[in-house]
Amino acid sequence: MFLVKVIGISFICMLLLSFAQSYVKATHSGVAINGQHWSTARRDSAEMAPDPQKFIDTAIVQVYTAPTFGWRGLFAVHPWIIFKKAGESQYHRYEVVSWGSSNVIRHNYALPDGYWFGAKPRLLVDHRGERAAAMIPSIEAAIGSYPWPHSYRVWPGPNSNTFLAHIGREVPKLKLDLPANAIGKDFRPLSRPVGLPASGKGLQVSLLGVLGLTLGAEEGVEFNVLAFNFGIDFKHPALRLPFTGRLGTNKIETDSGE
Fold first, then answer.
1. InterPro entries per the record (predicted)?
2. Is beta strand 122-128 parallel, antiparallel or unpaired with respect to 253-255?
3. Which of 48, 79, 190, 197, by CA, is between 20 and 30 Å from 211?
4. How far is Cα of residue 106 from the mean position of the Cα atoms in its chain?
5. Beta bridge partners of 213
6. Alpha-carbon dihedral of residues 206, 209, 210, 212, nearest 10 degrees?
7. How many other CB atoms are there within 10 angstroms of residue 21's CB atom?
8. How far is CA 242 from CA 2, 108, 216, in A?
9. How far apart, in whole angstroms, are the C-alpha atoms of residue 64 and residue 62?
10. Count of C-beta atoms within a 10 Å radius of residue 166
11. For the stretch 210-221, what's the b/e string if a residue is b when 16 or more beta carbons lie within 10 angstroms of its beta carbon?
């Protein structure tokens, strides 16, 4: 009984500390809680993606995340993937958006590296050259096979993070590691509670994304309790925390080799 109390108190303390860090960060940036209307929020380029004209002969695949708009940015992030084949002078951007259409999968809804309603994106994955070219057909196939193209739930999923996690599972060479505050990445149907994590390598056991365990090549060890995720990344040492996502060494999966 004593052990249960200690675990419970520790869980609550970690939640509070992680939320406090997220709140301080949001207050400092002035993005998540400034009361700005979505229609006037910044959506221009963050100038992070390589110039597609300059790199016209290079295949490129990148994944970004950014805090969701408004107070929700204290809790979760919104991800998207961009890619272009060698010879193309423009990117293709894919993500899931809940409004505006019965089909939640959107193509080129926003600029490839645009601010997400005021929030600057963070680069998670950057693959270029022959290896990027080799994975693009698999990425396109994964987009086409997404199981919930007409469904969206903020919690526990399926949502935008569920979509990117699906692509990561289908394309392990992407080496995708969605942060702990990517709520929805662990969503799995009741008929398939066991499978691959978002990195495509490892093991995940998840009950509708609200209770589970992930052992992943990129994720490390991560526990999910009501979509609050805690864990440790051993490969790139860091704590995986709700609200803040990651505390420790920065991580960008890169491959620029030809």
1. DUF3750 (IPR022224)
2. parallel
3. 79
4. 16
5. 205, 223
6. 20
7. 14
8. 25, 29, 17
9. 7
10. 21
11. bbbebebebbbe
**pLDDT score, position 36:** 67
What pLDDT, on the 0 to 100 scale, is given for residue 20?
67
- Residue 221 bridge partners (DSSP): 215, 232
In whole angstroms, give the CA distance from residue 169 to residue 202: 10
Q: Find where tokens 């691959």 sit.
A: 196
SS3 per-residue string spanning the chain: CHHHHHHHHHHHHHHHHHHHHHHHHHHHHCCCCCCCCHHHCCCCECCCCCCCCCCCCCCEEEEEEEECCHHHHHCCEEEEEEEECCCCCCCEEEEECCCCCCCCEEECCCCCCECECCECCEEEEEEECHHHHHHHHHHHHHHHCCCCCCCCCCCCCCCHHHHHHHHHHHCHHHCCCCCCCCCCCCCCCCCCCEECCCCCCEEEEECCCCEEEEEECCCEEEEEECCEEEEEECCCCEEEECCCEEEECCCCEEECCC
First to last CA, the chain: 57
Of 257 and 235, which is predicted with more confidence? 235
- Tokens matching residue 46: 């963050």
8 Å CB contact between 113 and 46? yes
